[in-house]
Design goal:
The complex is a heterodimer.
Chain A: H1 15-36, H2 45-73, H3 88-119
Helix pairs in contact in A: 1-2, 1-3, 2-3
Chain B: H1 2-21, H2 29-62, E1 76-81, E2 84-90, E3 96-101, E4 103-107, E5 112-118, E6 123-125, E7 134-136, E8 142-146, E9 152-157, E10 170-176, H3 178-191, H4 200-207, E11 237-238, E12 243-244, H5 247-255, H6 257-260, H7 274-285
Parallel strand pairs in B: 1-5, 4-10
Antiparallel strand pairs in B: 1-2, 2-3, 5-8, 6-7, 9-10, 11-12
Classes of the chains: A mainly alpha, B alpha+beta.
The structure holds copper (II) ion.
C-alpha cells in the first residue's frame, strides 16, 4: 500500500475509535428510528439488519486499514516497545504502536456492538 | 452456574498454587508475549463474546416483545406503587379475575407472562431466583415472562430506588404445583361471592374508614388506594415483605405504619383505642 502516503499527525491515533463510535451511533439510531416509525418506512427489519451488517463490514475494513497503517508506522514490529527515547523516530513508533492497539480494541468493540444484530429479529411492540 | 463457578475457582486456586510452588526460571520474551496475548487478550475477548452472545440470545425469550411470541398473553398484571405491589390475575379475556398484593403465586414448570406497570415513580420488578429484572415505568406497559422450575418460596425486592421506603418494598413468590395453584386461583375467584362472617374487627374496620382504601372480597370494602387485603392471613409477610405476618405486627402496622415504613401512604391509626386495633388485627390475621 505504497499509495497511502505516510502522514505524520497526532489525529490518526483516533481513526479506529472514531469509526467504532460512528458505527455504534449508526446502529443505535437506525434501529431506534426504524422501530419508532414502524411501517412508515418501506423496509423490512430484515433489510435493515442486512444494511447494518454491510455498514459493520465497512467499519471493520476501515479499522483493519487503520491497523495496517499503524503497523507500518510502527515499523512492522521490527523494534519492541517502549519507544521512549526523545527522538522523532521513537515518537513515530510509539504512536504507531498505540494506534495499532487502539485499532484492535475498536475492532473487538465493533464486533460486540454487532451481536444484537444476529439475535434480535424484530422491534419491541 | 455453580459447576461453572467451581471450575473457575479450582482453576484460579490451581494457578495460584502453581505460581507459588513452581521453580522460578525466566521464560523467553517470545513465550511471555504469547502468554500475554493469549491469556490477557484473546481469552477474555472470546469468553466475553460468548457470554454476551448467550445473554442476547436469551433475551427474546425472557422479554417476549417479539410479535412471534406476543401470543402468550399476560396472565398477571403487576403494578409498582410506593411502596407495595398491586397484583392482578387476569382471565383469558385479559380482564381482572381477582386482585391481591405483595404475594405472588405461580405454577411450576410453566411460563407466566407479566404486564408490568407503575402508578407513581419507576420501580423495578425482580425475582432474582427466577430471572432478570425489568423496570416498571409510569405510563408504559412492559412485558416480562418467567418460568419457575422448582417449587418453593422466593423473595423479590424492588430493584429501582423509588423513595424513602424503597428498601422495604418486596414481595414473596410462592411457586406451587399446578393443581394446588388452580385450587388456590379458583378459591380466590370464588372469594368475591362468599360473604365474610360477622366479627367485631370487621365492624371496626368499616367504622374507622379502612374500607376507603382497602378491598376485602366478600365484604362491602372496595377501596382502591391501598393493597387488597383479601385473605391477608394466608400471606407470608405484611407491608410488602417488611414484617412477618403475625397479629401483633398487623396491629403495629395499623398503629404506626410511618415508623415501620418512612414515607408510607397509609395514615397512622395510633389514636384508636388499643382494643379496636387488636380486634381489627385479629380479624385481618384470621382472613384465610
Ligand atoms: Cu419500588
Amino acid at each position: 500500500m505504497r499509495w497511502i502516503k505516510e502522514i505524520e499527525t497526532f489525529w490518526t491515533l483516533f481513526t479506529a475509535p472514531t469509526v467504532w463510535a460512528l458505527h455504534f451511533l449508526v446502529c443505535y439510531v437506525a434501529v431506534a428510528v426504524y422501530c419508532a416509525k414502524q411501517g412508515a418506512l418501506a423496509m423490512s427489519f430484515e433489510t435493515m439488519r442486512w444494511l447494518l451488517g454491510g455498514i459493520t463490514v465497512a467499519a471493520l475494513a476501515v479499522i483493519v486499514l487503520s491497523a495496517w497503517l499503524a503497523w507500518r508506522q510502527w515499523g512492522f514490529g521490527t523494534e519492541v516497545p517502549p519507544h521512549d527515547a526523545p527522538t522523532q523516530d521513537d515518537r513515530r513508533k510509539f504512536q504507531g504502536f498505540a494506534t495499532l492497539l487502539l485499532s484492535g480494541l475498536s475492532f473487538v468493540s465493533v464486533l460486540y456492538v454487532t451481536v444484537p444484530l444476529f439475535f434480535i429479529g424484530a422491534c419491541q411492540s | 452456574m455453580v459447576v461453572g463457578g467451581a471450575i473457575i475457582w479450582a482453576l484460579v486456586v490451581g494457578l495460584l498454587l502453581y505460581a507459588g510452588h513452581a521453580r522460578r526460571e525466566p521464560i523467553t520474551a517470545r513465550k511471555a508475549s504469547w502468554l500475554i496475548l493469549g491469556g490477557g487478550v484473546a481469552f477474555p475477548v472470546i469468553v466475553l463474546f460468548c457470554l454476551l452472545a448467550y445473554a442476547v440470545w436469551l433475551m427474546p425469550q425472557i422479554r417476549p416483545f417479539m410479535p412471534a411470541l406476543m401470543d402468550n398473553k399476560p396472565q398477571i398484571e403487576a403494578t409498582g406503587e410506593q411502596f407495595w405491589w398491586r397484583l392482578r390475575y387476569l382471565d383469558d379475556g385479559g380482564n381482572t379475575a381477582f386482585e391481591t398484593a405483595n404475594e405472588l403465586r405461580l405454577p411450576v414448570g410453566e411460563r407466566t407472562t407479566f404486564r408490568l406497570k407503575a402508578a407513581d415513580v419507576i420501580h423495578s420488578f425482580w425475582i432474582p431466583s427466577l430471572g432478570g429484572k425489568m423496570d416498571m415505568i409510569p405510563g408504559r406497559d412492559n412485558v416480562l415472562s418467567l418460568e419457575p422450575t422448582k417449587t418453593g418460596v422466593y423473595r423479590a425486592p424492588c430493584a429501582e430506588f423509588c423513595g424513602t421506603s424503597h428498601a422495604l418494598m418486596a414481595f414473596s413468590v410462592i411457586v406451587m404445583e399446578r393443581p394446588d395453584f388452580d385450587a388456590w386461583r379458583q378459591s380466590r375467584i370464588e372469594a368475591a361471592a362468599m360473604p365474610q362472617p360477622a366479627h367485631p374487627g370487621r365492624d371496626l374496620f368499616f367504622r374507622h374508614g379502612c374500607a376507603a382504601c382497602h378491598t376485602i372480597a366478600g365484604t362491602p370494602a372496595i377501596g382502591r388506594i391501598g393493597p387488597d387485603l383479601t385473605r391477608i392471613g394466608e400471606r407470608q409477610t405484611i407491608a410488602a415483605g417488611t414484617l412477618a405476618n403475625t397479629k401483633d405486627n398487623i396491629a403495629r402496622f395499623i398503629r404506626e405504619p410511618d415508623a415501620i415504613k418512612p414515607g408510607v401512604e397509609m395514615p397512622a391509626f395510633g389514636m384508636l383505642p388499643d382494643g379496636d386495633i387488636e380486634a381489627i388485627a385479629a380479624w385481618l390475621g384470621g382472613l384465610k
